[in-house]
Known about the structure:
The structure holds two protein chains of two kinds. Chain A has no helices and eleven strands. Chain A is mainly beta. Chain A is globular, with a radius of gyration of 14 Å. Chain B contains no helices and eleven strands. The model of chain B has no long low-confidence stretch (mean pLDDT 93). Chain B is globular. Chain B has strands spanning 4-5, 10-14, 19-25, 32-38, 45-51, 56-59, 62-67, 72-77, 86-93, 105-106, 110-115. Chain B is mainly beta. Chain A binds chain B through residues 4, 31, 33, 35, 41-50, 55-56, 58, 90, 92, 94, 96, 100-109, 111, and chain B through 4, 32, 34, 36, 41-46, 49, 51, 89, 93, 95, 99-109.
Amino acid sequence: AAGVIQSPRHLIKEKRETATLKCYPIPRHDTVYWYQQGPGQDPQFLISFYEKMQSDKGSIPDRFSAQQFSDYHSELNMSSLELGDSALYFCASSPRGALWQETQYFGPGTRLLVL
Amino acid sequence: DQQVKQNSPSLSVQEGRISILNCDYTNSMFDYFLWYKKYPAEGPTFLISISSIKDKNEDGRFTVFLNKSAKHLSLHIVPSQPGDSAVYFCAASDLGSGGGADGLTFGKGTHLIIQP
Lengths: 115, 116
């Protein structure tokens, strides 16, 4: 079965640079979520989109922005990178339908290292 | 403040025995709970979920129990197999908060080690 695709898988940037992470949801999933997992930490919710509109917002820094496109893929844009932004970034997708429970399916993650 | 707590950082169980992973939550608004399994360098893999209107959900070797009054849930794996060795995350959501695509709140995970 098709899974969530994230690119790139690994990214190395320097402080104050920008980075763009991409997420392609499972086919027919129209909701996308972004999470950040620091070393030894649990995943922290950043932001979500449903039908190309921002839906829920978590602990996303103001330096980060995200959007969802017409084909439902999403991009997380990170500017003025700091050392503390080094983490695993996960994207998850879920279907919206008649069911109110939404199981989120995660991608393999992008490992970002800021030097 | 950690709203979802997994108080055991690690758990060692013999192959063939039952593994019981515990999770406590403090937010009484949580109404949907999930367990994910995670291997290093991979994304979390969905295992099983339960909504607050149920107290038990079963899927093969995996059973999740929910005790709402105690704000406690547990994941039972029977029988435990070597491939079950991984980090298990408990996660919760407040789906009744307005219908949005709500983010999950995760616990810090329990590293399950299945010994042969």
